[in-house]
Design brief:
Low-confidence stretches: 297-310
Strand content: 5-15%
Distance between the termini: 19 Å
Number of domains: 2
Helix content: 40-55%
Order of helices and strands: EHEHEHEHEHEHHEHHHE
Structural class: alpha/beta
CATH class of the largest domain: Alpha Beta
CATH architecture of the largest domain: Alpha-Beta Complex
Mean pLDDT: 83
Number of helices: 10
Largest sheet: 8 strands, mixed
């Protein structure tokens, strides 16, 4: 394989694993025969990780470190690292050594075989079943059902991408989990790779229950893009119909109250007007969105290449 590879790693309070991480990465990447660099983005660590990373840079000239003054989240840190990557292939992973660096050559081989994205799949995950594995299984199954993209492990950060693809994406919120889906929207050929997973040896998990709500919202947004990206008028039309139906019901109730000799409840007629106006507004937005999709230059349209997702 020819070219170069950039390994991008966002970290937060991973001081105890950084030295070993850099040493193992260096040893593995040297065996690939590629030009390489390691980019570590420190996301506002408070455990001395920035100082240790600066020391490691003295011994590893191919190590680049970027430090945020305050914590902004894994997606923001990953986005900053991706912008600095210069390799033909970009590998992403966590900094806690639960993603073994020794799996990277397998991901690179998958891309050499023609894939655009090699997504790690932790088939033998070394986490507690009730609090980590079971919620992950349910979430992944739901994401597969709502998106129709058969990726089994959206929580695995160990992935490899072609840089020309990954740098086209504008990621935010918790979209680092959904990058294979976003790549698929752009016509990427996605292939899963079963990778080893190690138990956490140091540090603590950075995720709590609040991430579930954010992920659900992100999946809904991606689902909209996948299903309605070429016909947004359909989505707006459905919402407009529901509001129009509510407006008719409220108007009928107001008329019925008036015919009964009572003073028409103002709230019914007001609701009918508000719902009707909202329905008309959504219908107009749908028409406008459809015009944008139909008339935008073809070079800005997403590729509509059939997705090929495989497991190995």
């Amino acid at each position: 394989m020819t070219g170069s590879v950039s390994v991008v790693i966002p970290v937060h309070n991973e001081k105890d694993s950084l030295d070993e991480l850099v040493q193992r990465l260096s040893a593995v990447l040297k065996t690939t025969g590629l030009a390489w660099e390691v980019i570590i983005v420190d996301d506002g660590s408070t455990d001395g990780s920035p100082d240790l990373l600066r020391q490691l840079m003295l011994d590893q000239p191919r190590l680049k470190v970027f430090t945020a003054k305050c914590r902004r989240g894994q997606t923001s840190a990953l986005r900053a690292g991706l912008r600095q990557a210069r390799g033909d292939i970009v590998v992403t992973m966590d900094g806690d050594l639960q993603n073994p660096p020794e799996e990277i050559p397998r991901l690179l081989a998958v891309l050499e075989g023609g894939a655009d994205v090699a997504a790690g799949w932790r088939k033998d995950r070394k986490d507690t079943w009730l609090t980590r594995r079971l919620p992950s299984m349910v979430a992944n199954a739901w994401i597969r059902s709502i998106t129709g993209i058969p990726v089994h492990d959206h929580g695995c950060s160990l992935r490899a991408y072609r840089r020309q693809l990954i740098q086209r994406l504008d990621i935010y919120s918790d979209h680092h989990r959904l990058l294979p889906i976003l790549c698929a929207v752009h016509g990427a050929r996605v292939r899963e790779v079963a990778v080893q997973h190690a138990g956490r040896g140091a540090g603590q998990t950075k995720y709590g229950g609040s991430r579930v709500f954010r992920v659900l919202l992100d999946v809904m947004a991606v689902h909209f893009v996948l299903r309605y990206r070429w016909q947004p008028a359909e989505w707006f039309g459905r919402l407009a119909f529901l509001l129009a139906l509510g407006s008719v019901i409220a108007l009928a109730a107001g008329i019925a109250a008036a015919s009964g000799g009572r003073v028409p409840p103002v709230i019914l007629f007001g609701s009918a007007f508000i719902l009707g106006a909202g329905s008309a507004g959504l219908a107009g937005m749908g028409v406008f969105a459809q015009l944008l999709v139909q008339w935008q230059p073809s070079r800005l349209r997403m590729q509509n290449i059939p997705l090929r997702t495989e497991s190995s």
